[in-house]
């Protein structure tokens, strides 16, 4: 009994020890060095990105807010006094600014809904056919990859008073249109060009969305005797909802940028004319900052633009996601 | 009846396709027309000429602008791909102090429109002497919040075991990133690359502000000045300039079509 106990004890004492001890310390060493290696990797790699995001994104944003509350003009040297909400009050009384804000809303509402609508239509048509799909996809997508500046000037060229579009209109028996020269038509011509350029992008997104809808659902609807219209609203639209929300939000952000390039290059005077009828907020900010050198006013305008985009995006997400929440 | 049902989608698509390509056809056609027939309505020029192409390169800095655009778009794309992929990987696969805060900060930069940063960037550039330099044009785009967000999404799908196996084999962290993580997310990287290149090639607002001398203009900025002032109503030259800035992108698109379309689908569905 004593002997067997001893053996057990001995086994307990000796067998695990020679194996475990060096193993444990090896693992510890290994783990220690690996952890060190990991941290070294993480922090050295993050050094530049952290500096970048702070230096060129976060701090400049805070700086914009700061400048917006100051009387900061590049032409007058000297101190830039804190003036509180003065710049904001000036802007909200400024008719051109209000016009530019209203125009931006028109650009976004008509532009984004137009590109969604045409994107869905083209995607549905492409989904219906089985030949030349690739060719059509290329043709509809090409405007998206081409330079906005170049395309803006091409549109000016074909839409000018004695341009090819008016020639065709006259030959068909219509009267010639002023298009970009008209304070009533200019903004819609620019929006049409924006939509034309974005259709391809939306089409690709919706095509992918359509391919993810199980055909079973449509077959079931056919058995129930659903009309194509019902199938579209009850199956296609709800199932494409995530794509629609994504497109609308992304579209809004890109339209704000595009509304600068396109307006500068398409409007007849190159700065939102005629009679400020096509001016967008970004064009006006550009004029305030780099034509009038009033950085305080321009920064206040960007703060308003920021709040405007934020509100619009939240509104879109709320409305669009709620609508089809079955 | 059934035949008509089959044909009408094609008809609508052909009409739409005509609207999509007509501006390009007219642009190309004008670029080959002599100044006297640019107002003629023929699509095929009566006396086709290459004179506009030689003239635009001789009379303006078009070649220089073209090269500037390539340099700037290429440098920004390489930088965005390198840093965004790396940061996305680190945020997805490592636990370290400040990870969540860093990710939230980078995500929040997505909400900041570029237009909002133009004024501080301009002030910084003039303070540090970056205006009118290549660096001045490209510094704002060296990294993007969107890229980090996108790459993090893809990096998260890489199995942890794969990375740990490499660690046990004694690979160092840098080789694990380049040799194991990067190949796994290659489709996402190429999509990000194509879109970064495209948006920098077409960038207009910031280059317009930061560049003063005409020799440093990028193609869109050069074309914009060229069209509005320097070549008033020289439509044959403006259309030649437009063709030069549009054709390379169309060729690139046709070559990389599959990747681009896959890229949009990938990014759009994330």
From TrEMBL, chain A:
Keyword field: Cell membrane, Membrane, Transmembrane, Transmembrane helix, Transport
ABC transmembrane type-1 domain segment(s): 101-316
Keyword GTP-binding: no
Matching CDD domains: TM_PBP2 (cd06261)
Protein name (database record): ABC transporter permease subunit
Residue intervals passing through the bilayer: 39-59, 105-126, 138-159, 187-208, 239-260, 272-290, 297-317
SUPFAM superfamilies membership: MetI-like
InterPro entries with a match to the protein in the record: ABC_transporter_permease, MetI-like, MetI-like_sf
Lineage of producing organism: Bacteria, Bacillati, Bacillota, Bacilli, Bacillales
PANTHER family: ABC TRANSPORTER PERMEASE PROTEIN, INNER MEMBRANE ABC TRANSPORTER PERMEASE PROTEIN YCJO
Similarity annotation: Belongs to the binding-protein-dependent transport system permease family.
Membrane topology reported for the UniProt record: Multi-pass membrane protein
GO biological process, one term: transmembrane transport
Record's keyword annotation contains Membrane: yes
Location in the cell: Cell membrane
A GO CC annotation given for this chain: plasma membrane
From TrEMBL, chain B:
Principal localisation: membrane
Membrane topology: Multi-pass membrane protein
Transmembrane segments: 7-28, 65-89, 101-122, 134-155, 176-198, 235-256
GO cellular component, one term: plasma membrane
Domain ABC transmembrane type-1: 66-256
Any Pfam family hit: BPD_transp_1
Taxonomic superkingdom: Bacteria
Transmembrane in keyword set: yes
Keyword Chaperone part of the UniProt annotation: no
GO biological process: transmembrane transport
Coiled-coil intervals, chain numbering: none
SUPFAM superfamilies: MetI-like
Matching InterPro entries: MetI-like, MetI-like_sf
Alphabetized UniProt keyword annotations: Cell membrane, Membrane, Transmembrane, Transmembrane helix, Transport
Subcellular location field: Cell membrane
Family: Belongs to the binding-protein-dependent transport system permease family.
UniProt name for this protein: ABC transporter permease subunit
Source lineage: Bacteria, Bacillati, Bacillota, Bacilli, Bacillales
